[in-house]
Amino acid sequence: MTEWTGRVEDRRLLTGAGRYAADALDRGTLHLAFLRAPVAGARITGLDVAEAAAMPGVAAVLTAADLAADGIGPIAHEALARDDGGPAVDRPQPILAGDEIGYAGQAVAAVVAETREAAQDAAEAIVLDTEDIDPPSGVAFLRRHGSAEDTEAALARAAHRATIEIEVPRVTAFALEPRAAIAWPQDDGRMLYRTSTQNPFAVRGQLAAQLNWAPERLHVVAEDVGGSFGLKGFMAPEDAVLCWAADRLGRAIAWLPGRSETMLGDAQGRGAHGRVTVGLGADLEILAIEAAFEIDAGAYPGRRAYGVMNNINGLTGMYRVPVLSVEIAGMLSARPPLAPFRGNGRPEATHAIERALDAVARAAGADPVEIRARNLIGADEMPVTTALGATIDCGDFARVMAAARALNGDPAPRRAAAEARGRLYGVGLANCIESAGGPMRQPKPDCARLDVDADGRVTVAPGVMSVGQGHETGLGAMVAARLGIDRSRIDYRHGDTEAVRFGRGSGGSSGLTVAGSALAVALDALIADGAARAADMLGCDAGDVSFRDGAFHRDGSNESVDLGRIAAEAGGWRIEETFTPDAATFPNGTHLCEVEIDPETGRTEVVRYAAVEDVGTVMNPVLVEGQLHGGIAQGLSLGLGERIVHDADGQLLTGSLMDYAMLRASDLPGLRLGTEEVPTALNPLGVKGVGEAGAVGATAALASAVSDALARAGVTDFDLPASPCRVWEALAAAGRDVPDA
Amino acid sequence: MTKQTFEITVDGETRSVIAEPDMPLLYALRGALEKKGPKFGCGLAQCGACTVLLDGEPIRSCVTPIDSVSGEVRTLDGLATDGTPHPVQAAFIEEEAPQCGYCTNGWMMYAVAMLEKNPDVSDQEIRDNFAGLKCRCGTHMAILRATKAAADAMKA
Ligand code: FES
Ligand code: FES
Which residue of A215, A426, A550, A577 is most buried, as measured by CB atoms within 10 A? Predict the structure, then answer.
């Protein structure tokens, strides 16, 4: 018989016993369906729900008028002052559209009915009349950094300079588990809200503010979550509608959307256009960077559209950059709001600088790898504060870059072999560095709770939650090792606003760095507190007590008190501690990607991939590898063809996987992954964070490889995605002799 | 449409379900039949999360109307026998293949279908077998390794 080894959570996930949001659906739960706007940029001139409300099984039809009657406004948002002095734009997102429709797919009305089908049928029977108005446009927010004058002066004396443009399309998170939720009014007047989220405390806080409830009225729970990647980290309009409707009707209500609905209605990620100029001096040293980004901020540009703005520090990469000038403008559009997607601005910044370095290397006739090596910040220069104000505490970039190149090996023979077969061959390299466990300017705390019972069982509840990372295994192992008890004596709770005082949830590569550190602090506190209690019980000084194997031993005797006895004596034993990092950490890595392009079809195949990351101390190599792997797969998937497309009228053209290209297993080569550990002193574990690292490097490395391959065929200004059609067109436009498609 | 009673054999048990004839098998499985292994990922036959075996062949239960089902349905929930994991489950556990685990049902069921017919498969055949499956967490390599390990175990 096979032992259940490996990840603790896999036992339930691999037998169908996982508990995802929809798994908790009870018989008798009502279902909610939305009427979504069929047009973008419109005014509502009529909304007739009478027929829908009279349909069989319909319990309620709810609109913006009902929200207003209950005093529930739009999702408030504090507009940012613009650095160019222009007017700050405040467009709070309605929970249900009342007067104006910002984007196609926006929720206009909600139907609650006995079955999902009845709710959907009734939603279709609502009569919505609209007239076209100008879609949202113009600048919503604008931020500037650095000195335009100094940058201009430095670029003017550059020996070499190059300008590139990058287009990072909007993408959809496409977590395999669509957003789904069930709201259950409880007998005591509270609301149990089970939802597929990565941040239950954020959802609770935002819902409470939105509905004018005390936060304690809400109990938010997410047990297993089928992927999230930034999308599920906040309250969306649907969450507010569901809790509000359940409260009004006093009945449990589920919202279980289909994939077409989430493709249409989910917030989207990325969506940036960038223009970057780099100037080099005679010794190939970077003199200056000038960059301008336009973010497609959608119809309701809230805080979650600030990804590039908040993470722009990645633009100076691992390099010495004396002067720069950056402008980031958020532009209104008739598209859904933005949400973070793995990396959230970090991949865009890395993609921009690495592409620009490739281009300036080409302009200078120099080796792009050599240019990077020459400009790296040295390990002996740490800590260093960059021109964008990031303080990098430690790192050894040259070592990381050398290790990655060694892991990848010499590409020359592979290039020669592919070219002999008539293929275009590209070799790309990207250095990436990102802030983690922040926000950079003021890192947020996380929390961890330990409860010991009279049997000596320990319940761990960290403020972080897993949406696939395997924290249950990683953090559980940490507790077992520190307390010297068997893993089977440890229970684990997460994703529950009543399991711990507060929590950051999952996001910003903060799980181990912040929550893991809070847990380390809590374990120390438990042992210190236990030593004092044990000393009392043993009638000796705490200094004469030592802890091992789950018990406190009186030195020089065979007397001991175990964890359970202390808990029994105390009538329950709880320790809760928090940890706030002094500053963000900076995981960094070098990714190498090699591609073969078939000039006849335009198909790009990733044939080799190597990456070495410094994520600080590696505590669980398998979980680290999983995170890197997942991030790289996503980064490559985005670069190879993922792209949300709306037509000129704001209609979504990529509404399913028929039109939205997501990576398959056969699109990936074997990945060679390595780590170089440069532990940080910013947390007790020495860890830097790993959740976003793979995604930050991968798209940039792919872009570098594709542009290398295409440059050899005379295409100089190509940017991702490298879908066959776009590559083929670029080759044709460069006059390369390609057969008709 | 009016509801009818359907008899279906799932994981070795014959059960009856009252449903409209066009109700997707997935809903019956996850609802009245309480098989939570198959998952709703897309409802459009595009991801594989809802996969079950019908007479040994993988099908997308999200687009399979219940009235079209005749034969034996096998789900993830029924793979282990008496607490002993199926060799495919054992290999996925050993390789720590899943991350969020939401897609994993599909990969395991496709692997079971392939390997129970013939465990002697090449790497390319494994990749081809998985062509229509999606994983957003990026566990592909671990899944390929696990499937290879399962194949070896089943050959032995
Ligand atoms: S849910 Fe059936 S294929 Fe996606
Ligand atoms: S493990 Fe999460 S989608 Fe595959």
Answer: A426
